[in-house]
Amino acid sequence: MIHQVRVGRAWTRSKCRQVKQSTMNTSCFAGLRLNDITSIPIRQVPPFGRIYFSTSILQTERNVFNELEGRDALKLPSSADFLGVSSEGRKAQMQELAMKLQSLRDPKIYRSFVEANGKGFNDKLMLSSIKVVNFYTNPTTVLPLQMNGSTGKNEAQFKRSLVLSGPEFCHSLITTVILPHFGQCDNMTPKQFNDLMRIAFRIIQALGKLSMNLNQQSWKNNLPSQSNLLHRSSGTIQLGDLAETLLRQLLNAPIFVEGTSGYDHDKSRTAKVTSLYNNTLNTWSVIAATEKDPMIAKDAALRAERLLLDLAMSRSGNAGNDNTMKGNADPKSTLLQYLEPDVVSFNTTIKAWSKSGRFEKIAGQKVDVSTISAAERSEAILKLLQDLNDEARGLDYNDSILPDRMSYESVIQAWSRAHDPQATVRATKILEDMVERYNKAYSEDNVLPFNHTNRPPFPSRQTFSSVLTTLARTSFTNPTNAPSNHAIEHAESLFRQMKKLGDDGYEQNKPDTIAYNALLQVYANQVEILLTRKKHNVAAIKNAFDLCNRMEAIVAEMVAVSSSKGDSITDEDTNPDFTTHKVALLTLIRVGSNIMNLKQNQKITIDASACALRAKSHLKELTLTLSLGTLHLQAVKDLMNIFASIGDTEKMKDVYDLFSILQSRSQSPLQVSSIEYEEILDLLLKSRNGRLVVADLEKSINKNMGFRPSRRMLNSLIEANATLASDHINYARQADRIMTSMIDKYKDSYAIISKGNGTLEHYKVPRPNTFTLHSVVAAYADACGNRALPSKSRVKAIQRIEEILAMMEDMHKDNMNPGTDTQVTNYTAAVRPNVKTYNILLHAYNSRTKFVKDINDVKLILEKSEKLIKRMDNFAQTGENESAKPDHYTYASLLNIVAQSKLPDAPEKARVILQRAFANNNGSGDIIVFNTALKVISGTTESVKEVLDLYERLENGSFGAGLEPDKFTFSIVMAALGKEGTIEAAQKVESLYHRMNKRFDLRDGGPHAARSIKPDIYCYNSIISAWSNVKTAESCQRAENHLDSLLQATTGIKADGSSFSSLIYGHSQRSDSAAACDCERVLEKKEAYQRLYSNIPINFIDYNLTIKKYSEQMNPGGCFRVLERLLKHMEIEGITKPVNIDQLVYCFNSTMNSYNKASVRDSASKIQEIFDLMVSSTSSKPDRYSYALLMNAHAQSRSKNAFKIVDNLLEQILQENSDGKKAVQPTITVFNLLFKACELSPPSNNPDENPVTTAFERFGLIQASNTIRLNHHTYSHMFAICRNHVQDEGKRDQLVSRLFQKCCHDGQLSELALTLYRDSISPKKFENVVSSIVGEKVSPLDVCLRDFPQSCKRNVSPPKHVRFRRY
Questions:
Q1: What are phi and psi of 653, to 5 degrees?
Q2: Phi and psi torsions of 56, nearest 5°
Q3: Is 378 exposed, middle or buried (0-12, 13-18, 19+ CB in 10 A)?
Q4: 594-647 pLDDT, tens per residue?
Q5: Which ranges of 103-149 does DSSP label H, i.e. alpha helix?
Q6: Exposed, middle or buried, 84 (CB in 10 Å: 0-12/13-18/19+)?
Q7: CA distance to 192, 849, 1176, per residue, from 5 (Å)
Q8: Which residues contact 1084 (CB under 8 A, 6 or more apart)?
Q9: Could you say which of 751, 884, 958, 1095 is the most buried, measured as most Cβ atoms within 10 Å of its Cβ?
């Protein structure tokens, strides 16, 4: 039954209880009273951390407005007063203006202001109020105030700082000053009325924003909720009360607006009042949606409903059907008569209830608190709206309260959030009712024709999507409910309806991404239901995998629809987003994990990798989507576990890389527990590439992740950096820094704890252990093995290892004898160096010996190693550290250092170490130690007999009954025998090989035998090398027979590069004429084999040996043919930059030299061709020897332009040297070749082509140089040049004499120089010059080199063969 409810001065029909609201009691006197309705109790708002006070307790200091200051002090400022003021100045002016306006509550001040501002007071008051409201309605603004008063308990004065939020102050201003003032005025202008409504709208809107900010801050700070919040005062509820009281006070204020009677004005006023009313409802809706406490949210929704029901029927009680009552209203009537709640009012209330539902998590399960009641209330309000609309259709109907699509969708969304088994049924019923009302509107005949605006709404894709979302949520929360068992069929049915509507022309009903995602979630929930049963079997996993396939098909359909052309739906409407891929990803990971965890007796045809690969593709798509979301680390860990179970470590690394990209895009830290993070580290450490990722995680570890990094995490980071230390020493240094920081922090924390000042954080500081320090030691040792590491860095790394080892020994000693200092015992965590730690230091020593050239440094390293082993022996024997006892690896490392040292007494040291190793182990030894010692002893050719003797003793059991030779033992013995180069030695090598085969056959060829005794390619190469070293045609043929056996695969072993190289070397050492051809034939055979097996690299030494052999046989054509073969083979293999480029250059130089040695006619042009080929090659460039060979060839050609060509080549050398090319540097040799070319050049009558000029210019260049020194060959060539090309005898004598004197001054006089000097000068001149130097008169024919003082020949080395060159 509809009751009559009085609201203000009007009666309203409503289907709810009667509520009586009295009108606001305002005073008609000059003073303004503070209404009790607007009083705000004292409260504290946690987010801002300040105390907020209502204006009802503020005391105004009246002496500010003393009448002695005059009336001008009471005038309100004009707009011009605010021009040109800074932001801080404007803030101060606004604060002053706000305090002036607030002081108008005092009757005395109010009267003074009215008198001071005259007739324009109303406009000035409104203008000033607008300025203050515009400034202080920002939710972030506050108004600092001062309050003086008494405590009430004593006479002492106190001063307390107060602060009031801007929106609350504006509310106080309008309710205590503006509304009372205009309520007692006779009338208002339309502009003043519009400004008043605008001010009220802004204040109510600001209160809503302020409440939303407070609630969001509460969620962000995760403030704890209390169950009794409904029974206590709430900040946000009070803000809603402020908005509602402002609305009620405004609606009940007696206001008359002059000159605004009539229907149009009433319609405009109705729109403004209704908008203000709806905004107030929205304030309650915002509180209900954002409040964390479920009881307060429910109270806010209830307040919105109460406000709606109190005023819902106001227009029915205020106006007739013809709307004539408003125009004839009382001049001092209220605004309540203009209120007409519309569908927005109802939708806002429905939305308030829809979003007020809350649930709690108890033991990991969601438990309903208010979601069901909220959905029921929102549906009840929708029903009320429908009934009111149906009743109004019989009257003068308009569509102001016609339920629209939002009305239905808000209720459906409320049920989608409700934890109710019947939520899907209720949501579906609302959808069906919506469709039914739409169809009914068009089926009725006795109604007004419906147009596009007033017809009932038809469901859109959002409506269907909301029902699908409801179905998705309830299908998992209620798996045993009957409707949920058919959730997939129900969802597919709704989805087909959407598609059919879209195909029939309703484009707005086509499924979009949200609808597809809801459908996917239904499938995902069904998969979860199948896999969460206590006894799910293989059949359940297969069904779950089939559902995953359907989900993949749905995602593919989304992509196909979004990419189809001619469709009215844009690409974004159905393009898979973050939610799409996340749902598919998590479902596939769930199924894959269950497949992986199946027991061995449960067989399934589905491979977990299939799910993992699909999941990885979705993870990759997540990194490409524009929308962002959150993906928990647990899902990534599960996916990595799947790849780890199938051994695909590369995919593990890819998964983490994608997840890292996702985290960087979302800019959200990894909110995981320390245990989960440790598990991720363990997974990443399983792969080499994964360790690269872990090394980059240190920045994440150092961030605030919600937990302190544990010792396990820090040790993982140290190990990750240690793994990379072989690439660069900085990784070892980084591991060292982590270790040092770990030790220092724990020392500091324990010191604080020992003093009794420790907190829980101090007890959680990770403590270093043996693994911590051991990993850093290993990191530095690995870094020492890097060839690119500078020598100084290698020395410092070894020193740091020694320091850490000493630190570990001290820690262990302190643990053994703690004394009174128990702190040391605690921070060291039982650190103790073991034999592995010492062996790592020995490994570092061994690495350094590989790169040390000074024999003294090698001796020092060896001495350190021996002292270290003695210290280890001492620790073990005294019982101080029994774990430090040297083992087999210790002695093997020491033997490796001895082998690398290449000292003359290395074999003797190896014998001693071998005896110690077996003596320390009670006569039993290790084959690795024996093999290492055997390798050191076999380093000399004289030790073959001893090697054989040791081998025989090993076979006889002299080194222990259980110790037998392995394939490395045989390989060392066979290699030592092969170096002898005798037929008997080669036959013994063959015999040893057959013994290995026989022993392997006796062991039935098991896997252990294959590793220990089965002959490999190294053993077989020893046979080829042994026969090749005999260096005869017959022995090389026998070696080639063994090579052919390898190529024909009759031995079960594949040939490698050394198999061919050994034979080529043997052929190159032969002295018969067919040796070079045999070298080339084997080389051709090797190239054919390399085309079959690309892993065999090109060995330039093979080509060099072949070229050298052809050169020895004076066959430069063969040399050039081999060179062409090499270049062609490199082109086929695609080699442009070989590793050993020096060997390639040597091939070119050897070929060029072969033409020089063979004295081939026109050899200069052939050498020039090879040189040009070398220049045009991308793999090698000429060096100084290449230039020298070419210059010598042109010089010996004796051509007319030879000296010019050689001079140009010299100029190229000088230019390349100036460009910084170290491979080409000018030496005295290349200058001498130029002088040689000038000497051998034929005479020319053309002065411009005279070689003498060129020779003396270059001679002067040498004299000016600080790096090149003249030698006796230079002077010899210069004497010959003057002899051959200077025709004027006087001039020639003068030049030659000066040269000879300089030659003697430089100490470069040789027999050759003296002979050429004698030939190039007149006898008389020769006699005079020589006599002046020797000191006595000599005969030109009888003078010899021994007649000259030693200073003239001091820089000339005695010739190896006393033979002069004749020219």
A1: -65, -40
A2: -70, -15
A3: buried
A4: 888 776 556 777 888 888 889 888 888 877 776 656 666 677 778 888 887 777
A5: 107-117, 121-136
A6: exposed
A7: 32, 104, 105
A8: 1125
A9: 884
Average pLDDT, the chain: 78
**Nearest alpha-carbon partner for 530 in 516, 547, 517, 518:** 547
Q: Alpha-carbon distance 123 to 1030, whole Å?
A: 123
CA–CA dist 605, 564 (Å, integer): 36
By the 8 A CB rule, do 774 and 836 touch?
yes
Report the alpha-carbon distance of residue 569 to residue 189 in Å, rounded: 52
Q: What are 1119's two structure tokens?
A: 């040399």
Cα–Cα distance between 1099 and 978 in angstroms, integer? 21
Report pLDDT digits (tens) over 1110-1150.
999 999 999 999 999 998 988 888 887 787 788 889 999 99
Rounded distance between C-alpha atoms, residue 555 and residue 51, angstroms: 54
Nearest to 778 by CA among 861, 847, 826, 871: 847
What is the token pair recorded at 1157?
A: 């040695």
Q: How far is CA 1252 from CA 172, 410, 575, in A?
A: 113, 108, 86
Degrees to nearest 5, angle at CA 538 with 535 and 541: 90
Q: Is the dihedral of CA 103, 106, 108, 110 positive or negative?
A: positive
Contact (Cβ atoms closer than 8 angstroms) between residue 893 and residue 872: no
Place of tokens 């872990």: 694
Q: Which residues contact 1314 (CB under 8 A, 6 or more apart)?
A: 1343, 1344, 1345, 1348
- Cα(1056)–Cα(1018) distance, rounded to whole angstroms? 9
Helix%, strand%, coil% for the chain, nearest 5: 65, 5, 30
List the 43-45 sheet strands across, edge first: 43-45, 50-52, 157-165, 142-150
Beta strands, E only, 848-922: none
> Which position has the higher pLDDT, 1000 or 62?
1000
DSSP states of 575-623 as a string?
Answer: S--HHHHHHHHHHHHHHHHHHHT--TT---SS-HHHHHHHHHHHHHHHH
Give Rg (Cα) of the chain. Answer: 51
| Whether pLDDT at 1271 is above 80 | yes
End-to-end Cα separation, the chain, in angstroms: 141
Token digits of residue 1353: 């020949």
Beta-carbon neighbour count of residue 1327 at 10 Å? 16
- Amino acid, single-letter form, for residue 760: L
pLDDT in tens, 395-424: 555 667 888 888 888 898 888 888 888 888
Which residues neighbour 608 within 8 Å (Cβ) at sequence distance 6 or greater? 592, 593, 595, 596, 642, 645, 646
Which residues have a Cβ under 8 Å from the Cβ of 95 and sit 6 or more positions away? Answer: 143, 144
To the nearest 10 degrees (0 to 180), the angle between helices 578-596 and 608-624 is 160
pTM, to two decimals = 0.55
In the 8-state DSSP scheme, what is residue 177?
Answer: I
The pLDDT tens digits for 1341-1352 are: 788 888 888 999
Could you give the 3-state DSSP secondary structure of residue 149? strand
Q: Assign 491 a pLDDT band (cuts: 50, 70, 90).
A: confident
Distance CA 1214, CA 980 (A): 49
How confident is the model over 315-331, as a mean pLDDT?
Answer: 42
Rounded distance between C-alpha atoms, residue 590 and residue 584, angstroms: 10
Side chain identity, residue 429: K
Comparing CA positions, the residue from 1103, 1106, 1178, 1183 lying closest to residue 1138 is: 1178
Distance between CA atoms of residues 265 and 330, nearest Å:
15
**Of residues 335, 366, 254, 348, the one with CA closest to residue 307:** 348
**Separation in Å, CA 792 to CA 539, 789, 923:** 66, 8, 41
Longest dimension (CA), the chain: 158
